[in-house]
């Protein structure tokens, strides 16, 4: 970006804050903004947060998403806006964007204008109405579920066929829905494909397990019940036959594998039930080599009922006459039963894990036989075809927001006209702080008080850092610049005020840090005397405290002397007392002599020289303080305050005394109001100060008269 020295555009500048600022007042100024030398810009960078500026608009300008708005991004936003508008002057209007102002000379512009017209239609407005930002804040109103919106998600309301609506609802219920731009759940191509794949898998699985297929249903429709009974005793039966096999392997194992007699001793002294856990833990029957499992007598009582169910519902149907005439089960028969039921168990293990099962086989067969898949796929394609509308809505929102907010940002970026010239708050002013009978308008948000306080003092402003609290709101940290009035009464810890944000909400503000700087020349003039008075007051307090401590110490000593008798005190020393009195007299005499000498020196001057002496003395005392304050006030600068918040200010934006007075309002009685000066609780004035001054004047006059000063003046 380089300066174009051959530009024919005539810029206008105004001077405020001690520097020249460009005036951006017309669309022609914006069209030539790229030609303006960046050295003449007030700001080169600003953050997107912590501002009284719409965050969404700031995000649209922040193209690279780094949380900062820079000069190239400003120029890109201005250029794009001017290209999309018939007349760039509309950017200075605040009544919305008329449809007729959208340029349609190219494909992009025509698309934006057509989409804008549809938005007006969806909002219930006519083509003569202006587009507002509020028309685009709720996207669900633009992308309603009953019309295509380009996201490829089809909601039930997008079709008027009840059967198709029902099918879409079933897909959402079993596969989960995807929210479209309207906020309503629907299905897309992937969901549709997955649903039909699951339907086919479930139907194939059911086909393998039909009742006519004895491989999967050896017990017919009782197979599921029989397998459940089989599974409930399988581990215990397997345990029995393994124990018998071990007994056959080694004769010595039989005794060890059967319960020891001591085990039954545990059951000796208590009531025993058939479901007792100690009994259930015993083997299913007595262990012996090659023994069959008894199905009646000889079965563990805790398992007798389960074995009886196994015999009736599983063994007899599967083994037929082989199990109908015997009361025992061999290991080979058990293996045969397990093998007969394993096919069904494997079939159940292969059951597809999907909610499609709850629709039922008949409904799934109807879905496969119907044409719902093709119809939903066609709706999805129609919705995707409307993608241009969805994409262009973002461009319309961008244009409408830029029409409303772009110039505001320029007046706080290219120049600071909102702050200096237009009598309204800048985007970095977050509200007004009321504290100590004044209102502070230069209030900024603070994200990191430590970082901010390290740089902000270079502004030369008297700064007050506050924490603001409000019910049901996160605390705020602010800094306010006090640029007028007295600050002698400000206290740091716990001082309370009220902060009003830009929305008019009030917050309780607590002062937690103060950066002291001169506020006015008047305060600087009186500051030496104020400090002297404070020093004298502090010394008096120290003297009173020391005397109080001495009295307390002497009182303690007196009490101790009463408790413990001591030697009689020495007689009163008249010589010592006389010495103290003489010293006091000498001090008073020295003071009187000094005052007399000063008076004599004054009366040696001409009458018109005496006021000059008093003025010189006052200047000698207050002059350095006033001079330092003047130098500080001259360099008072807005830049460090903004830089501490992440800005890049490109100039010295001064806050002189007149402008500072406008930023801090002091309490004043309303015009035309009456005032009573009678205070019934006013403190009675003591006359001793007046008499003391008169006594000093009398001593000085008497001394001068005694020395003949007045005689010389009379002659």
Could you explain how this protein is built, in words?
Among the domains are: 13-144 and 386-420, no CATH class; 220-356, no CATH class; 431-517, no CATH class. The model has no long low-confidence stretch (mean pLDDT 80). The chain is of the alpha+beta class and 715 residues long. Helix content is 50%, strand content 10%. It is built from 26 helices and 19 strands. It is flat, with a radius of gyration of 49 Å. α20 (521-563) crosses α22 (609-634). An 8-stranded antiparallel beta sheet has the order 13-15-14-17-16-11-12-19. A 3-stranded antiparallel beta sheet has the order 4-3-18. The protein has a two-stranded antiparallel ribbon with strand order 1-2.
Could you say which overall geometry the principal axes of the C-alpha atoms support? flat
Tell me the Rg in angstroms: 49 Å
Q: Number of DSSP strands?
A: 19
Task: Give a quick account of the main beta sheet: strands, pairing sense, barrel closure.
Answer: 8 strands, antiparallel
| Number of discrete helical segments | 26
**What level of helicity do the residues show?**
40-55%
What does the average pLDDT come to? 80
